[in-house]
Design brief:
The chain contains two helices and 24 strands. It is mainly β. Strands 6-7-10-11-14-15-13-12-9-8 form a ten-stranded antiparallel beta barrel. Strand 17 and strand 18 (237-247) form a beta hairpin. The longest helix is centred in the N-terminal third of the chain and has 4 residues, at 4-7. The radius of gyration is 26 Å and the shape is elongated. Residues 1-14, 71-84, 164-169 and 293-308 have low confidence and may be disordered.
Length: 308
């Protein structure tokens, strides 16, 4: 997995001038705004935002620097219309954001110069989407913080296609995560999911109230930590515990905090229970439980036409 905060955030953008192009422009000095329409393109420090139309708002007069006594001739690369006095701009219709290899799409985008944020929302039918390579993040509302490189997402739906290192010979299954909120912290290499977290990988479904995803400096997922009461299902097997730690390298889940595993008629209890997701093996420390071998008689019975 690409480092989440680095992969799904845009780099910091210093307060600099904003260049623009559009098919038509109308200035409204009294309203301190400019209307742009048709093939709108706004760029600032490598970040490019395009859309069908835009409204550019400027700071009140008292916040502007005093005017220069001598008018300076404006060149093509120095548009005085969109400079550091910019307060915010709003872009509507087929909004597309690009910074480096990262792209984002939505129906509505708002850039706030003071808060250094770019907020993307959808149109009620399609949600905003942010992509970096094979990684895809969707949500009801995506807030890209341009000064801290963090991202805040409401009701995120994330596909982690690189959750297994490419050098690994085992089949790579995408890991899908849903939650009510996602916060990405690049400095800590951490993605924090909260409220109604659901993780899906192959036939495994894990649910819990909160989860932290950690990754290394190369951008690979290392661990998922779920806390506050966890339920795991894999086929006929069901497991519950207070905590679950997933190791992306070994693809093993460690359950702690009164862990229990229910597999049809079997019940396993222990201090720590490790589940190997690929092989279905179980290791239990200080185990006790109840096994019902009669439930598994069909597994021991030879197939039709095959001699024991």
């Amino acid at each position: 997995m690409i480092a989440l905060a680095a992969a799904l955030a845009v780099a910091a953008a210093p307060a600099g001038p904003v260049d623009f192009t559009a098919q038509t422009m109308r200035m409204e000095p009294r309203e301190r705004r400019t209307l742009l329409d048709g093939s709108v393109r706004l760029s600032r420090d490598g970040m490019v935002v395009t859309g069908d139309r835009a409204v550019v708002e400027f700071a009140p007069d008292e916040q502007r620097p005093p005017p220069q006594r001598k008018a300076r001739r404006r060149g093509r690369d120095d548009p005085a219309l969109l400079g550091q006095k910019l307060e915010r701009f709003t872009v509507d219709g087929n909004v597309h954001v690009q910074r480096g290899k990262r792209t984002a799409d939505g129906a509505h985008g708002v850039f706030d110069a003071r808060g250094q944020t770019l907020v993307l929302t959808g149109d009620g039918k399609d949600d905003p989407v942010l992509r970096d390579g094979s990684e895809t993040l969707m949500g009801d509302r995506i807030v890209m913080r341009l000064d801290t490189e963090d991202v805040d997402v409401q009701k995120p739906r994330l596909v982690l296609r690189r959750s297994v290192p490419e050098a690994d010979e085992a089949p790579q299954l995408p890991t899908r995560v849903e939650a009510s909120r996602l916060s990405l912290d690049r400095s800590e290499r951490l993605a924090r999911f909260t409220d109604d977290v659901v993780v899906r990988r192959g036939d495994v479904v894990v649910r819990g109230p909160r989860m932290d995803a950690h990754y290394d400096s190369s951008g690979e997922l290392t661990h998922l930590y779920l806390r506050g009461g966890v339920e795991l299902r894999q086929g006929d097997r069901r497991a519950v515990a207070q905590n679950a730690d997933y190791d992306a390298r070994t693809r093993e889940v460690l359950l702690t905090g009164d862990p229990r595993v229910f597999d049809r008629g079997d019940v396993l209890v222990g201090e720590r229970i490790a589940l190997a997701l690929d092989t279905h093996e179980i290791r239990v420390e200080r185990a006790h439980g109840r096994l019902r071998p009669e439930v598994h008689q069909d597994e021991a019975r030879p197939a039709s036409g095959v001699k024991p």
